[in-house]
Amino acid sequence: MTVDGKRQNLDAAALRPLLDRGRWFATLPEPVRQRLLDAATTRRVPAGTRLFTRGDANDGLYCVLEGAVRVGATSADGREAVLSVVEPPQWFGEIAFFDGGPRTHNADTRVATTFLRIPRETLEKLLAEDPSLWRHMGALVAEKIRAVFTGVEEMALLPAPARIARRLLAMSEGYGMLRPGNAQRRISVNQEQLGAMLSVTRQTVSEVLGEFETRGLLKRHYGQIELVDPDALRRVGDGFP
Questions:
Q1: Does the record carry Lipoprotein as a key word (predicted)?
Q2: What digits encode the pLDDT tens for the residues 196-211?
């Protein structure tokens, strides 16, 4: 797998405040955090860049530093399934470390994006030297599984407005991957992608978001949604109109 883009010098000290906003990185032992950063490389690539494709070999662990990455798949007839939109400082690409298999989905940048990558060989060496680190890798996977289970339950049980409200809140909180107090008010997602995540038509998403905007719960921007009143959205997600 090759990614065309501008390689950037890694300023570990400057990155730490951003990375420490993430729950997973902040819980790693300090020596491990430093070794990961020592081995990491960063690149900035334009919108629409394919970072990896379903079936590719595992080349490392990724973290979004700026921008957004869409994780999903495309069917033979061109239909798109969007699993998530990954924003800073979320990590992804960890599944292949556990089963040794290939990439499970495609990862494409939505906008110009800067990402950090830790080579597979570096992480495997760290895990071999200190097997207790598998627990930390397991925690990263568990965060994703928890989000998936929650999403499946919501799709089965909740009406569209509640599902949309909950998904927006989940995205703002990094699907549980951000430390408390670090939720983002602006989310890099459009109506079509939001509908693809929730199996809801674009028209329904547009109608629901329009109602939320009229009530002052959010504002729609080009390629982004701004959460104006997260508490009110939470009440909608809990079933209160």
A1: no
A2: 889 899 999 999 999 9
Q: Give me 106's structure tokens.
A: 């495609």
Q: Are 125 and 97 in contact (CB under 8 A)?
A: no
Q: 7: pLDDT confidence band, cut at 50, 70 and 90?
A: low
Asked if 43 contacts 8 with a C-beta cutoff of 8 angstroms, the reply is: yes
Peptide bond preceding 89: is omega within 30 degrees of 0, i.e. cis? yes
- In the structure, how many helices (H) and strands (E) does the chain have? 10, 12
Q: Which long-range contacts (CB under 8 A, 24 or more apart) does 31-36 make?
A: 32/126, 32/130, 32/133, 32/136, 35/122, 35/126, 36/118, 36/122, 36/123, 36/126
pLDDT, mean over the chain: 90
**Host H or E run for residue 36:** helix 30-39
CA nearest 5: which of 97, 109, 141, 100?
109
**Cβ neighbourhood burial of 95 (10 Å; 0-12, 13-18, 19+):** middle
Task: Give the type of residue at 18.
Answer: L
pTM of the model: 0.86
Burial state string for 121-160 with b = 16 or more CB within 10 A and e = fewer than 16: ebbeebeeeeeebeebbeebeebbeebeeebeebeeebeb
Instruction: Give pLDDT tens digits for 80-105.
Output: 888 899 999 999 999 888 888 999 99
Q: Name the residue with tokens 């495997």.
A: 124
